[in-house]
Amino acid sequence: MGVADTGKRILLGRKLRSTQLGETLLPKRVAMPVFASDALSSVAYSPDEILLVLSVAGISGYAFSWKVAIAVMLVMATVVLSYRQNVQAYPSGDGDYEVTSTNLGPSAGLVVGSALLVDYVLTVAVSISSAAQYAATAVDPLQGYQTPIAVAAILFLMAANLRGVRESSLTFAVPTYLFMMAIYGMALWGLVRYLAGDLPLAESASLTVEAADPFTDGLTGFAFAFLLLRAFSSGCAALTGVEAISNGVPAFRKPKGRNAAATLLLLGAIAISMSLAVITLANVMDVHMVDDPATDLLTAAGTPVGPEYHQAPVIGQLAGGVFDGFPVGFVFVIAATAVILLLAANTAYNGFPVLGSILARDGFLPRQLQLRGDRLAFSNGIIVLSAFAIVLVVAFDARVTALIQLYIVGVFVSFTASQGGMIRHWNRELRTADDPRVRAGMHRSRAINAVGFTVTGTVLVVVLLTKFFAGAWIAVLAMALIYLMMRTIRRHYDAIAVELEVDESDHGLPSRVHAIVLVSKLHKPAMRALSYARASRPNVVEALTVDVDSDGTRRLLDDWDARDITVPLKILSSPYREVLGPIVAYVRNIRRDSPRDVVTVYIPEYVVGHWWERLLHNQTALRLKARLLFTPGVMVTSVPYQLQSAEIAQRRAERPHTAPGDLRRGYVRREGRRQGGRPGRGGRP
Question: What is residue 239's predicted lDDT score, i.e. its pLDDT?
Fold first, then answer.
């Protein structure tokens, strides 16, 4: 095993066989925190976004926060109930893409696919950026370094997911449950203190917020209605992550659809109760949040608090007040929130690679995204997701408020399209169903999906109206570009498939085979190439060299004659000492003179054992092969010759590798010889 393979095994763990794929399936107790972490983590920033938007209307605007939150939670309940129908009707894991493609056509499916791809990337960027903000809040020296922290966190998640679904899932399950304990514990203790009459106000309660010009005369009119819609659309970030379960159904244990539906219902109940608890506490404790605290938050004297003031997030302010006499509780809530935000991106790491593999299977993305890696994870999809998330984090400097404007557009596109597809699905099923009980169930499911279509479609319109010019246009543009890219890739694959179809002309044989052996000097690699070319019995075989050094060419001729080689040697003149040009021109002239002939070029190459030796050999051969590959009717054959360093490296690779405990388990004999193999370990059968 080489150094690169050893490092890969340390990072990713031992390889898994394809037959072990069933071992990566998740029980509900693990699947719930894995797939629900995104929706649950939105509790850490969706209340903040509602309050930030309402702050434009001044302190009086905060009075509407609970009403906006209830509206958001009603939408979430509708979406959860609707998606319970999706996962049971389509348990394959293709999710919204399959539902939309099957019922509304492939073009609509591609729209959904592009929307979900963008939304998964934004899920990682928003969650990780928010986690970095919490880390900077808890640890003062980290302030100003949110972007590097976020990039490092994305790289950590990438490495964890490359190890495989099950191992990363078990790692993320415990923090999710701890976060639930932290939020519910804070809410319950806050309720106890509120009933006892000793619940303090938040740290920002003493500060005032000056209303913007349109709201100085009251909270009425079109401007305030639009503001409420903006707050509602920002709060709808809480709904992201619901669709991940429909894409992750294959990761559940059987019965997959039923387990996914149960998990989805539990997710909805927990997310709704946690969000309402946080927004209720924020109202009771009079939390004030503004977009620019240095200028928009005012002291009792009416002066801005200035840039030295640090505005803690909503949960941070709530925990500081509820646990003002119990610092351990405060630290636990902040730590659990920061960790869940870090791990919430894992929902996207479970969804994006699977969706990418499905789109690649259908020919809309590069086929490399369809392949599983050593650990049975879709490694290429994980890497692509991480790369785009890092680009977004760096471009927006890990600012959640800026990234949130791009968010949720994609997910509501998929919500609306999939619910429309489900309505058509039930209409089609009802035409063939005869059992009255089955038909009644289908009518009920269709009614649920119809309500879901109406609600999500309305929210999509609201989101586009309120967020488009605030930054959502970037997400819409990205979706359009991805859509066009996928259509182009599919057209390319279709054109290649047509071009590669076998026809009658492929059954014939070439009129002749013209073999050309490239030589620079007469040595073992050249002799092996000559022997191999002659053994293939071409119609014509000749050796070819380029005269770039008259002394070297003279020595080659002398050696050729001295060894009485029967293959004719042709020397190409090169007054400008160029090697590739004369060879390519000579080969193309042969093809031009005899178009029905096949020209085979044999190139001797060294096989070396060290990476640095590769820099010293075969460079001309590589460039020549690159040129000849674009010449129709020309076959390029590499004739390898193993140098001693390669033979040593091969023997080293074949040397048995032992690990602690192999003797006790019977994998090696006491004298050190192997007696069996343990599958999946490097160097063992």
Answer: 79
